[in-house]
């Protein structure tokens, strides 16, 4: 499997104005590095839909995998999944479903994340919730499948048989 290039996009009003230290972004970088991914970009932006869309479009032109953290919930400023759905070609419902289902073991509020995942061109976008606890719990349950998903998106013939 060729190594994966990745970008991490933290979507947080407080994080983007320096009101809170971003712990989610670094946690994602740590976990992705653990599977050999090369992190080319990290950025923190506010919960602004058009800005999120523009960054997702730009980042997917440069890396195999874009992971977002934050803004997947129900508050008025949480618009990450809505922005993601407007820029992806194909949604991959199973990723969000798996994260929510597995997340219930940790917290019943897992069901409140509207996180989505999908393809854009030959790249993969995955939303994660904002808290660093949620980042670690959600990423842990999908991390092993990400390389296979990226290989398939790129037209790879890796065996789906296992
Ligand atoms: N990047 C982050 N690093 C560490 N903790 C975070 C981060 N983003 C969110 N959290 C924590 O997770 C909780 C829920 O995340 P959410 O994205 O809803 O953030 P918020 O505080 O509601 O608004 P915002 O982060 O956009 O200012 C937050 O209250 C915060 O405690
Ligand atoms: N595994 C896991 N999933 C989780 C959580 C968590 O702590 N662990 N937090 C939930 C909560 S409290 C919310 S509000 C939603 C959305 O979080 P966000 O608004 O930070 O994106 O994620 C949910 N998913």
Automatic annotation (TrEMBL):
Keyword Cell inner membrane on entry: no
Sequence ranges assigned to domain MoaB/Mog in this UniProt record: 7-149
Known pathway: Cofactor biosynthesis; molybdopterin biosynthesis
Catalysed conversion reaction: molybdopterin + ATP + H(+) = adenylyl-molybdopterin + diphosphate
Organism superkingdom: Bacteria
Gene3D superfamilies: MoaB/Mog-like domain
InterPro entries: MoaB/Mog-like_dom_sf (IPR036425), MoaB/Mog_dom (IPR001453), MoCF_biosynth_CS (IPR008284), MPT_Adenylyltrnsfr/MoaC-Rel (IPR051920)
Record EC number: 2.7.7.75
The keyword Membrane appears for this protein: no
Enzymatic class: transferase
Pfam family, one: MoCF_biosynth
Molecular function GO terms recorded: molybdopterin adenylyltransferase activity
NCBIfam families reported for this sequence: molyb_syn
Protein name in UniProt: Molybdopterin adenylyltransferase
Originating species: Candidatus Magnetominusculus xianensis
